[in-house]
Design brief:
Blueprint lengths: L1 H20 L7 H9 L4 H5 L6 H17 L24 H23 L16 E2 L8 E2 L10 H8 L5 H10 L4 H11 L4 H12 L13 H5 L3 H7 L1 E7 L2 E6 L5 H11 L2 E6 L2 H11 L3 H17 L10 H8 L2 H16 L2 E8 L3 E8 L2 E9 L3 H11 L11 E8 L4 E11 L2 E8 L1 H6 L11 H10 L5 E6 L6 H12 L6 E5 L10 E4 L8 H8 L6 E4 L5 H12 L3 E6 L6 H8 L4 H7 E13 L4 E5 L2 H7 L9 E5 L10 E12 L2 H8 L4 H10 L5 H10 L5 H7 L6
Parallel strand pairs: 4-5, 12-16, 12-17, 13-14, 13-15, 15-16
Antiparallel strand pairs: 1-2, 3-4, 6-7, 6-11, 7-8, 9-10, 10-11, 17-20, 18-19
Helix pairs in contact: 1-4, 2-5, 4-8, 6-7, 6-9, 14-16, 15-17, 22-24, 24-26, 26-27
The chain binds zinc ion (ZN).
């Protein structure tokens, strides 16, 4: 808001000055000069409609700021940035005002004229412009003012041109528009081309000689966070990431800022090694990085005291007013917000709150496995559940029936979606929070970052460029099907194809594609959306999940009429998808020609890279699973357990796959409605490898452990 205000003030000021100057004929040329200098931010008017409002607003702000701050080179000390607009004189007699205005005007004219003089060729660096971080307000929601960074770095636009992100003409135009503030040009490009954000980050990093780090995909070391105080991180807008070989990696929007480096060295006596990250990601990451279980435990102590002070009637049955009072108590708000931040910090997908006879247990699901985090006093459960119900828009008085809702959790710049559900259990209501935000947060991985085995990746690339056919990804809920599908969509997403998705819920946002969320309350179901899709000229359709005959049939027909269809299904293995299609009623003669590929996947935990060690593989395991000569030393890997993986030895997950690509022989059998065993036999002959095979390959690659592969492919062992 502030910058809009600033820009308005500035324009007002110039207009006023101009009207006063009108009688003076000697400065005729000034009008035109001024007109060019007055911000006419094209970003505000021409910004594309697609990017989220926030991005758009920020870009507009940056563009406006860039224009306003352009005259800065006239400021004497190199590298000084002005944050606020000049103050208008508040009172005084007319003559004095006129003189002051005239003086100010002359200064402005001077600045404008200097600005019109061609820029010096030596790039001047500007330090980061810091604004105070408005820490948690009572609701615990975090806000920051825009951090407008002004950095001259002409190499960036050159690199953008070299990498064909923009044409040379566009590059020249941007250089002119942003008056040499190349950081503003970077921000503008991100707004215009959000799906190139990652690449733009790398280009900027390359152009200033620092590594770019995508904070949404980076695990942060708790020890690193402990080395810099939160207050310092907030004021300076930096995030400590990890310490390595005696130096501490720190993400900053302006890693070249020498003064920042000095401040870090003087205050903490450590060797910083800076990397580049986008300012808004830094602002979002600070509260997550600094949330720890310890400070939540401190809040619990306060909480207990506070809850005791809230009277409950003698019968021990709290009234609705009691519940509301508890739900709005300061420490319960702090605790719940902290709990969600901690879950994000530990990259949990779900939070379980489970009342027992005497206590409340809080568990996080991390990498697919539930881990106990807190055991709280039973007296806190009502406050906790009521608070969450309020956030989710549910009825706090209703405690005997299941309820569902959604929570929008607000970070500095991003809203995180959380699905809330409660079920009345024996000892009270059990709550599960699903952090849909955690997938948004991590961003869509590139297909090359998915650790596909080479042969599978090659086949996926080939199949996903096919003009038509159905490509199924199967697996139970939570097996990462959506992530895989989106990494494939990201791979094929180019401006010349129309991709449409129908999902429930939409878990990822991919710019440049059309995503539709099913809404059964207004009868907007899969079938209805799919029918309308076919009139929207799509090339690629993604169907969140196929459950019924109608969507299955539409998928087959769409595939046969020239569309590439991606869909998921709940089956245990790839080939069962064929059976399922036929079982739910699609005719085999439709199924056979429409399918092109079937892939099953499971998630296994990834060995923590921080504490990974190798060990000689047990002979019996080798005998059972591998063809080996019986003599060579074969090594497996495992995690010893460290603070980064909370002692589990695992950090994050990866998928293992089986991919079956249909050929004419298998198609023929499917069309004849042959048994799946016969189809499988033909598939195996033509090189199809089951899930476990891929898992074992990843054990040898040191990505996961043999125990994990055993855990998820148990049924495959004969
Ligand atoms: Zn570890």
């Amino acid at each position: 808001m502030q910058s809009y205000h600033t820009s308005k003030l500035h324009v007002m000021f110039l207009c006023l000055a101009l009207s006063l100057l009108a009688p003076l004929q000697s400065v005729q040329a000034l009008g035109s000069t001024n007109e060019e200098a007055v911000p006419r931010p094209p970003a505000t008017q021409e910004a594309p409609e697609k990017p989220p409002l926030l991005e758009q607003q920020r870009a507009a702000k940056l563009a406006a700021l860039a224009a306003i701050e352009a005259p800065l080179p006239a400021v004497p000390a190199e590298g000084v940035v002005v944050q606020t607009a000049e103050r208008m004189p508040s009172s005084g007699n007319g003559l004095r005002i006129a003189i002051v205005i005239l003086l100010l005007l002359l200064i402005t004219v001077g600045i404008v004229l200097i600005f019109r003089i061609p820029r010096m060729s030596v790039p001047v660096e500007y330090p980061l412009m810091h604004e105070t971080f408005a820490a948690d307000d009572l609701s615990g929601r975090l806000k920051t003012e825009d951090t407008a960074l002004r950095i001259v770095n002409p190499r960036f636009l050159e690199l953008a041109v070299e990498n064909r992100l923009i044409t040379p003409a566009e590059g020249a135009d941007m250089a002119e528009r942003f008056c040499g503030n190349d950081f503003a040009a970077l921000m503008q490009l991100i707004t215009e081309r959000p799906h190139f954000k990652e690449l733009l980050g790398h280009l900027w990093g390359d152009s200033i000689g620092f590594t770019y780090v995508n904070l949404e995909m980076t695990a942060i070391q708790p020890e690193a966070v402990r080395q810099i105080t939160r207050e310092f991180a907030e004021i300076n807008q930096i995030v400590p990431l990890y310490s390595f070989g005696g130096s501490l990696s720190i993400a900053a929007a302006n890693p070249k800022d020498r003064e920042l480096e000095e401040r870090v060295v003087n205050k903490f006596n450590l060797v910083p090694s800076f990397v580049f990250a986008f300012p808004e990601e830094i602002a979002d990451t600070i509260p997550i990085a600094y949330q720890s279980a310890e400070n939540l435990n401190e809040i619990v102590t306060e909480l207990k005291a506070e809850i005791k002070n809230i009277a409950v009637n003698p019968a021990n049955i709290p009234t609705t007013q009691d519940l509301a009072k508890r739900a709005n108590s300061h420490s319960i708000i702090e605790f719940v917000n902290g709990l969600i931040l901690l879950a994000m910090n530990e990259m949990a997908s779900d939070i379980h709150i489970e009342p027992d006879e005497l206590s409340v247990r809080i568990r996080f699901r991390i990498d697919g496995i539930l881990q106990e985090k807190f055991i709280l006093e039973k007296s806190l459960v009502l406050a906790l559940v009521s608070r969450l119900k309020l956030m989710a828009g549910c009825n706090i008085a209703e405690r005997r029936l299941p309820q569902d809702g959604r929570i929008k959790f607000v970070l500095a710049r991003r809203k995180i979606d959380i699905r809330f559900s409660t079920v009345p259990a024996l000892y009270g209501e059990k709550v599960v929070l699903r952090l849909l935000g955690s997938t948004f947060l991590r961003g869509i991985p590139n297909i090359t970052e998915m650790d596909f085995s080479v042969s599978i990746l090659d086949s996926i690339k080939r199949v996903s460029k096919a003009p038509n056919g159905v490509f199924f990804i199967t697996g139970p809920t939570g097996s990462g099907k959506t992530t895989t599908l989106y990494s494939i969509l990201k791979y094929i997403n180019t401006p010349n194809i129309n991709i449409m998705t129908v999902e429930d819920p939409v878990e990822y946002r991919l710019p440049g594609i059309n995503q539709v969320q099913v809404n059964t309350s207004i009868d907007l179901d899969f079938v209805r959306v799919l029918r309308s899709f076919l009139r929207q000229d799509p090339n690629v359709i993604l169907i969140g999940e196929i459950r019924d005959i109608e969507s299955a049939r539409i998928a087959s027909q769409a595939a046969l009429t020239g569309h590439l269809v991606f869909a998921t299904m709940h089956t245990n293995n790839a080939l069962q998808a064929v059976n399922r299609m036929i079982d739910i009623g699609v005719e085999p003669f439709l199924v056979a020609p429409s399918l092109i590929a079937l892939m099953a996947q499971r998630l296994v935990r990834r060995i923590c890279p921080n504490c990974k060690e190798k060990y000689p593989a047990p002979k019996s395991v080798l005998d059972d699973n591998f063809e080996w000569d019986g003599v060579s030393e074969i090594y497996f890997f495992r995690g010893k357990g460290c603070s980064q993986c909370h002692g589990t030895g695992y950090l994050g997950r990866l998928a293992i796959h089986e991919l079956f690509i249909l050929n004419s022989a298998t198609r023929e059998k499917i069309a004849q409605n042959a048994s799946i065993l016969i189809v499988e036999e033909i598939a195996l002959k033509s090189g199809f490898k089951p899930l476990r095979h891929d898992g074992l390959k990843k054990v040898l690659r040191g990505l996961t452990t043999i125990e994990e592969v055993d855990r998820v492919t148990y049924h495959d062992i004969e």
